[in-house]
Amino acid sequence: MKPSVLIVDDEQVFRVLAESALAAEGFEVRSAINIARAKKEIDRAVPDVVLLDRRLPDGDGMALLREIRAEGQSAPLFILVTAYADIANAVEALRAGAVDYLAKPVQPTDLLLKVKKALEVRGLRDRLELSQRLVTPQNVEPKSQAMRAFTRTLEQLARSPFTPVLIVGPSGAGKQYAAEALHRYTYPPTGADSSFVDVNCAAIPADLIEGTLFGWERGAFTDARSSRRGLIELADKGTLFLDEIAELPDHSQAKLLKFLDAQRFRRLGGERELEVSVRVIAATNRDVDAFVKAGKFREDLYHRLSVFVLRVPPLAERHEEIPDLAQLFVEQCARRMKKRTVGLSADALAKLSRYDFPGNVRELKNIIERAVILSAEARIEPEDIVLPPAARTEIPSNVFFGVSLNAEGSPPPVDEVERAYVQRVLEHMNGRRGAAAEVLGISYPTFLRRLRELGIDRDN
Ligand SMILES: Nc1ncnc2c1ncn2[C@@H]1O[C@H](COP(=O)(O)OP(=O)(O)OP(=O)(O)O)[C@@H](O)[C@H]1O
Ligand SMILES: [Mg+2]
What structural domains does the chain harbor? Predict the structure, then answer.
């Protein structure tokens, strides 16, 4: 989630200078030496910013800019690098859709300033800060005790890049997010690529998983017409993330254990032992202990994996993080949906803070996404925040309020039902109107207005 920059320049001196300046600030940096390579890099992953030289061996950088911009939507921000900063050059660059331009020779401070300014324009700045917190956690302390402990563990683990790690935690708490963070800690941005390979053990059929992980040699099985590298090889000098490890079939568990012990393995049908340097991070939301006791998970593998257990605390144990996370998600969603929402009102935040998020960070993210859709204002208000019904209320789940037919035998009008219902809720909340509004999922002023309209006054 670090903001990424693609440098397109055939001049090595400039690339090295820009790469090191940007990497030191926590950006993910890639480079390309010509237009053709730049296109490939952009196809692979759209960067946030492209630093684009105009004079390239295979054409004018401006052509690339126009082409990518024409493709639309998720176009990166372009900063053009020109030989001289004259007005004509600048105007042409900005007309073509660049956000800024730089003149050579480029000062690193100018470069950083312009890149950051460009990101700021798009509201990505907080993302940068958040990732800087991950890259250099000593700069910003997380707000909750639970996350401070968590970050310290990440830092320690980053220093032993081959130690396997088991990440546990409830669904939606951020296990995958933690795995990616650990990967970034372990391989800080240097411009060199180290891969993070992600495998969901539950999603791959049991009889294919071994081939997927370890690869195969030609002829290993009937359909193996050519040999293939497995994901472990692709993860060399990086991280192999085995999600839902509890679902890994028994025979693959044995092979994984052997690999963990030696960092060596054989492809299926292969004779040669291959050696790689890979950190295995496994994750699960299951109770692996219970799986081991039930004989569904190998005890020896469990011991090997659980030398380091990283527990991602449920969001309920780190309520202090809610405002920062909520703000981050507002900005992400607003950008994606092209809305002008910039944040949350104090009341909206207060409403979130009272909720206990059984679905953890993922649930918070979903709630914010809905709120951004509903919100008409720059700030999200409490009524934009829709909490699931179970959470709205301390009301027992058995029948709370029934509607009976009126004297004429027909169903009562809505106002009448609402009046009775609202009175019943007020009663249940011991007359606390704020709490009743909360339970009903509407804002306090709206609730008061409705009370007046329904003719329910203070003493009811
Ligand atoms: N600290 C964080 N900062 C920003 N986003 C986060 C953070 N933690 C989690 N998220 C986001 O919350 C969502 C859920 O996180 P993630 O997928 O890592 O959960 P999980 O624990 O792997 O869940 P599951 O058990 O269901 O697989 C993701 O969209 C992730 O990007
Ligand atoms: Mg997950």
Answer: 4-122 (3.40.50.2300), 131-311 (3.40.50.300), 316-392 (1.10.8.60), 397-460 (1.10.10.60)
